[in-house]
Amino acid sequence: MRLIAENLSGERGGEAVFAGIGFAIEDGQSLVVTGPNGSGKSTLLRVIAGLLPHLHGRIAIEGGGEDFPTVASACHYLGHQNAMKAALTVDENLAFWRRFSGDGRLSIADALEQVDLGGLGHLPFGYLSTGQKRRAAIAKLLVSHRPVWLLDEPTAGLDNASEARFTELMKAHCAAGGIVAAATHLPLGLGGATALEMGRAHG
Ligand SMILES: Nc1ncnc2c1ncn2[C@@H]1O[C@H](COP(=O)(O)OP(=O)(O)OP(=O)(O)O)[C@@H](O)[C@H]1O
């Protein structure tokens, strides 16, 4: 599978935010998007996910087969918001995402173990601490059948140990043939990632 962008431009509120973006990421590879505040990192990830339209250019998935015929069907987008319902338990939230995205590699209980939230699935999501909420949102990725992880500041609010654990989860996802595209201000520890710096001339 291959995620490709060609000469991509995006806009917010009628103003061009970026132009001339191009990349190709294959199975097992990652893209790390950096750049100053307001340079368009979040906009780019939302354009890739199909949550915002692009002005020009092309974004496509190649080799996705019957399971992933479109970019949107291949992607799991984790934005600044965790996209979990505060009043539902962690288990109920993850069960929703599992149904929505297709059964992933891990069960809900195993995914919670992976993010060190084992035994907390019965709690309402709203009871969790900020970092625990982010870890529960990361567990969404593990219970979902989506090869392309689109991550916007994924480690915001995580302590050092959780950050290191998430790096290992991203590496394992890539080692299993997945693709990671992440916008970040902090190093993510993804050796060999393709770097894309926003706020520079592209094209
Ligand atoms: N809904 C909107 N309407 C108009 N302009 C917007 C909207 N959302 C974002 N923008 C503008 O688009 C530009 C890019 O924003 P974006 O959130 O993509 O940047 P970013 O690189 O992710 O920033 P940060 O590092 O602060 O998260 C900014 O100038 C921002 O003010």
TrEMBL record:
Residues 3-201 form the ABC transporter domain. Coiled coil: none annotated. Keywords: ATP-binding, Cytochrome c-type biogenesis, Membrane, Nucleotide-binding, Translocase, Transport. The keyword Nucleotide-binding applies. The keyword Lipid biosynthesis does not apply. PROSITE patterns: ABC_TRANSPORTER_2. GO terms for biological process: cytochrome complex assembly. Pfam families: ABC_tran (PF00005). InterPro entries: AAA+_ATPase, ABC_transporter-like_ATP-bd, ABC_transptr_haem_export_CcmA, P-loop_NTPase. One of its GO terms (molecular function) is transmembrane transporter activity. NCBIfam families: ccmA. This is Heme exporter protein A. It comes from Aminobacter aganoensis. The lineage of its organism: Bacteria, Pseudomonadati, Pseudomonadota, Alphaproteobacteria, Hyphomicrobiales.
